[in-house]
Amino acid sequence: MDHRLLEIVACPVCKGKVVLDKEKQELICKFDRLAYPIKDGIPMMLEVEARKMGMDEGR
């Protein structure tokens, strides 16, 4: 994923920053504990597409 795009993409729920998890191909919102999938290089930034993260993830 292009790092310039990562600088402007925000969590649609809280409008906060997201962090790229290259291994899982997800954009992570640590505040809301949501992981947005990246499919074919395109971030799926919809709350309904997001995976709720477990308490032990994202530290």
TrEMBL record:
GO cellular component: cytosol
InterPro entries: Trm112-like
Pfam families: Trm112p
Highest taxon of the lineage: Bacteria
Family designation: Belongs to the UPF0434 family.
Protein name, UniProt field: UPF0434 protein GFB47_06575
Organism: Vibrio algicola
Species lineage: Bacteria, Pseudomonadati, Pseudomonadota, Gammaproteobacteria, Vibrionales
